[in-house]
UniProtKB/TrEMBL annotation:
InterPro entries: HMA_dom, HMA_dom_sf. SUPFAM superfamilies: HMA, heavy metal-associated domain (SSF55008). One of its GO terms (molecular function) is metal ion binding. This is Heavy-metal-associated domain-containing protein. Coiled coil: none annotated. It holds the Pfam family HMA. CDD domains: HMA. PROSITE patterns: HMA_2 (PS50846).
């Protein structure tokens, strides 16, 4: 009897888990909660030759387009930065006019709700 109850509970949990995964797969994690796509923060200067510094941030927790826009907006809100997020690679390419410290970049991403687990200086 107890085996049947445990098996039933496991099947129910598996069905609910699979249902949630499918929902997120087709609508994104944030859209599943009904959240709308945030507006992208507009960067006035997109000429990369004006940005002598570049870092690549590996970001954990991004799983949909809304997540990537949040991270991009958080980094673009910093003075003198231009960031582009690649969701598939889980990274943000950050171009800077001045050498912004790693902690400032980590803090901006953390405030957006995500975690930076590695920063590579490119130039």
């Amino acid at each position: 009897m107890s085996t049947a109850v445990i098996t039933t509970l496991l099947v129910i949990a598996a069905v609910l888990g699979i249902k949630g995964c499918i929902k997120r797969l087709y609508s994104g994690c944030c859209k599943a909660s009904g959240e709308k796509m945030p507006k992208r923060l507009r960067v006035k200067d997109k000429d990369l030759s004006h940005y002598p510094y570049e870092k690549v941030l590996k970001v954990d927790g991004m799983s949909c387009g809304i997540c990537s826009v949040r991270v991009e907006n958080a980094l673009n809100a910093l003075e003198g930065t231009y960031a582009r997020v690649d969701l598939d690679r889980g990274q943000a390419d950050v171009y800077m006019k001045e050498d912004t410290g790693d902690e400032a970049l980590r803090d901006a991403v953390r405030e957006a709700g995500y975690t930076v687990y590695r920063i590579n200086r490119i130039k």
